[in-house]
Specification:
Elements lengths: L2 H27 L9 H28 L6 H19 L5 H31 L7 E5 L2 E5 L9 E4 L9 E5 L2 E4 L1 H4 L5 E3 L4 E2 L4 E2 L4 E5 L7 H11 L6 H34 L6 H15 L2 H20 L2 E3 L2 H8 L1 E7 L5 E11 L5 H11 L6 H12 L2 E4 L6 E4 L14 E7 L3 E6 L2 E6 L1 H7 L11 E7 L2 E12 L3 H10 L4 E5 L4 H11 L3 E3 L4 H14 L5 E6 L5 H6 L2 E5 L5 H6 L2 E3 L5 H36 L5 H20 L8
Parallel strand pairs: 11-20, 11-22, 20-21, 22-23, 23-24
Antiparallel strand pairs: 1-2, 1-3, 3-9, 4-7, 4-9, 5-6, 5-8, 10-24, 12-19, 13-14, 15-16, 16-17, 17-18, 18-19
Helix pairs in contact: 1-2, 1-4, 2-3, 2-4, 3-4, 3-8, 4-9, 4-20, 7-8, 7-9, 8-19, 8-20, 9-19, 9-20, 10-19, 11-12, 14-19, 19-20
Amino acid sequence: MNKKQRKMLIRILIAAVLLVTIRILYAFLGEGDDAAVKEPVWFLLYMIPYLTVGFDILKKALKGIKNRQVFDENFLMAVATVGVIALALIKRNGDYIDGIAVMLFYQVGELFQSYAVGKSRRSISALMDIRPDYANLERDGETEKVDPDEVEVGSIIVVKPGEKIPIDGVIIEGRTTLNTSALTGESVPREAEVDDEVISGCINMTGVIRVRTTKDFGESTVSKILELVENSSSRKSRSENFISRFARYYTPIVCFSALALALLPPVVLLILSKAPQWGMWVYRALTFLVISCPCALVISIPLTFFAGIGGASRAGVLVKGSNYLEQLSKTEIVAMDKTGTMTKGVFEVNGIHHSTMDDRELLEIAAHAECFSTHPIALSIQRAFVTGQLWRKDSETGEASLVDESSEFRGEIKKDRVSGVEEIGGNGVVATVDGRSVAAGNARLMERLGIGYIPCHHAGTIVHVAIDGAYAGHILISDVIKPTSVQAIRELHKAGISKTVVLTGDAKSAAEAVAKELGVDEVRSELLPADKVTAVEELLKAKGAKDVLAFVGDGINDAPVLSRADIGIAMGALGSDAAIEAADVVLMDDDPLKIAKAVRIARKCMRIVKENIVFALGVKVLCLVLGAFGIANMLMAIFADVGVMVLAVLNAIRALAVDNV
């Protein structure tokens, strides 16, 4: 609770104690014609707690009238409470409690709302507390603490354990573990060493590292994220805009309705030669005013979106505005890029088939035969041998898993073992390895050399290997599906997504094989970037009028498609300027499961918004009708105003909880 809230709480407590004390005194000294203390004195005494708790509301109401912005909740509270007190003064019955109680409970509700909003803001601030305070700049062998804004691109900074990485860069010395939870929502630390890229906002956990900066502070990931979150509230949803328009027209309508309720029935009764009962109808009109205050809607709806965006940020999902959150909740079709989105985007050896020797030995021979080539396929074979990593597909599920990753399988390429290298364009390579003739390439190379080979039925690039003219087996190389991609598609369907589509530039056979493994509804292959835009436009034309199409891409090559879709989601693009600019939603890591989580968060937020609208309006309308007929008294009016507001705010705060969504 901040200083302002503490002051308000003290005022409320003082006013409550004074009100109870004066009421007790009135019971002993103020009732009856022979009362020891006369009515004017009680009026002045009751004004002490009233002004203690309500002077700021009266001040705001007068300021609103002066600025010609009359019809707001402060005006409604001021008119209603002053009116009730004026009636009691005219009747000289000492019944000022209703007016003071309305103001007192209204301020209790305002205090609660202020605390709830503050808690929501503090939660978001804590989640996004990633702005670094300083950078350790290295100059002439010495380190100096400077403002991150002062660090130029290409400078060397030192990051010690426990410190935040202030600026994006590349590690040039050291090895460490990074805590990326503030950015990605994931608690699993990430290992980083020389030549690895690091992004601002991460926390260095273990070792000292030296980093060469690659961006200015203003262009770094941390600055982009903070700018995105800070600006998100400026993009209002249709629901928020509706509530703003609603309050603008609603408040004057209920004010004039209350005036009509106070004047018309007594006038009609006078015409009918009956007692007008002015006091009763004015009291009903004042009750009507208290009930009509639109605080619950005006406060809870923006708070729900604010909390929803904050909760999404904690889960590693950055939403640029509440309008995009609302759009995301309506998503029915999800189209996605394949490479880098559902797959790792790098070639990996994920199978060795029909080998006449040990798999590792065949990989070693092929890696040496390819050691002078810079072709991506050749590099993937070399990498698999050097790192000891070999991917293999499960024969039943078709999913690739990593095997043989222990250090005992790591190898070293020795180019002095290789001679007579001849690279045949479009075919492969022929070389001598340890005195043996080795051919490694596609089926055309085997046919060219007259060597019989065994075709592979798996989708991907096949490198056949022959040794001394005899077939030795083949190596399967393909882009590996991310471990969570299959589950991600299942989660999307479970979340209510009616159609999933993969758009890729891969050949038809490879694309269909991946689509089958993923379990998507449709795949479109052999697409150039412009073709993807065309494909999205076709999907947009075919969908229902109220359905929303989301496209998920890596945020760089797919920028045109991200912009064209109803909602663009950039994933795995942390630190990418293109992603942040083109997309409406940015996922902070490359986990496809976050797509379904983002949709579920948006839908939960919109459910809460609708619940608050229906609940607040329903209670208001019911109590307004009861108030007009004299059934609802001031206590019911207080519940219809303060009680409904408190319940709506409590419901809105639920949008912050996204862990189990």
